[in-house]
Amino acid sequence: MLQPLPERRSRRGSRVTVTAVAALTVLSASGCADFSDQDASSRAGAFSSVPERGGPQPQPPKTPEPEETDPPTGPCVDPNAAVIATCLGTTGGVRPADPEGKTTYVAERKTGNIIISKRYGPQRVVATVPVDGAGDGGLIDFELSPTYLQDQMIYALVTTGSDNRIVRIAPGNSVKPILTGIPKGATGNMGSISFVSPTELRVATGDAGDARAASDPGSLAGKLFTIDPNLDSPRPTIVASGFGSNVALCPDPDTGSLFVADSGPAGDRLQQVEPGGLRLLWSWADRPGVTGCAVAGGVISVSVATAFRIDSLKAPTNASPSAGQPQAADVKNDYGAVGRMTTFGGAMQIATINKTVSGAPATTTNDRVAIFSGSASAEDNT
């Protein structure tokens, strides 16, 4: 079983403690997604206590069992020792589930499943939310509640048949909309969420295929904003605007700085969120397909999926405000196309999206999560 995750420091100095999801097997939804129950629950008001249901109930974390000495065999056993989850559907968000990063939570974007896995398994579905997985929509990202051990809540950014929205998933797979009406498009739905504190959730949204909406103050497309997820009808506070598609947040766990990778109208780019607005750190005019980012050990790593590589830049500091030249790591043969990334300790977990990127090697078609140490050769700031 799993141990609590370590404390993370928010950019405002508060500590957010995330604990591992306990074992709760939930069957995934089948057929067309039906959001009537969600919308009805939205009108019903705040959550009341969730009644106990039959079957296994969440339990406190226990001491992990020893690793097996003889690895199992089968089609879902990856020979790469860094791989901790395989045989996945197209992935969305990914989060570490233990301090060493040997266990992972990963979203299957098109099925709406949130899965917990470690190397050699077993894999368990810990929650499922109905989604519209057409285009680049679906279960886009998720976060455990900062007080998960007490409330057992999971928050997610999802696509429905009519919009993108923030939902809260309670024990028993009870799904309640928190913020609805985020614009949806055939593309440009991929966004990102992360907690600043128990009362502040950061949300980054894609432009839903409409670059004009990203600069429209009346639209939540192409924006970075915060909400209080504990309220029934939270009012978004806009922090930044003008984002394109595939927007990924990457907070620095050491300094509290916040970086954002996205594909903008003029090319792919990495920006830093500052009190006065956004500061461009690097842009990729050839649009290689920025799909995720993470910060570990003072290095910002950015996944560029269609180029099958991970680019690394030194995180800027007050003394050296430039990010310097990216250093590229070719991951085509080992992992193929990498999508979302997340940080634990001094390393990262990366989730692949080979099922949706053409040209990926045949050996990488089973989407996976792997531990990635990053590039130690990122050029010094200049």
Strands, count: 26
What oligomeric assembly is this protein in?
Answer: single chain
Tell me the number of structural domains. 1
Number of helices: 3
**Adjacency order of strands in the biggest sheet:** 3-26-25-24
CATH architecture: 6 Propeller
CATH homologous superfamily title: TolB, C-terminal domain
CATH topology: Neuraminidase
List the uncertain runs: 1-33, 43-64
The SS-based structural class is mainly beta
- Envelope shape: globular
What Rg do the Cα atoms give?
19 Å
Strand content: 35-45%
Encode the helix/strand succession as letters. Answer: EEHEEEEEEHEEEEEHEEEEEEEEEEEEE
Amount of helix? under 10%
Characterize the main sheet: 4 strands, antiparallel
Overall residue-averaged pLDDT value: 84
First-last Cα distance: 46 Å
Molecular structure report:
By secondary structure, the protein is mainly β. It has one domain: TolB, C-terminal domain (Neuraminidase, 6 Propeller). It contains 3 helices and 26 strands. The strands form 7 sheets. The chain has a 4-stranded antiparallel sheet with strand order 3-26-25-24, with no helix packed on it. A hairpin with a 6-residue loop joins strand 4 and strand 5. The N terminus is likely disordered. InterPro entries: 6-blade_b-propeller_TolB-like (IPR011042), Glc/Sorbosone_DH (IPR012938). This is Glucose/Sorbosone dehydrogenase domain-containing protein. Pfam families: GSDH (PF07995). It comes from Gordonia hirsuta DSM 44140 = NBRC 16056.
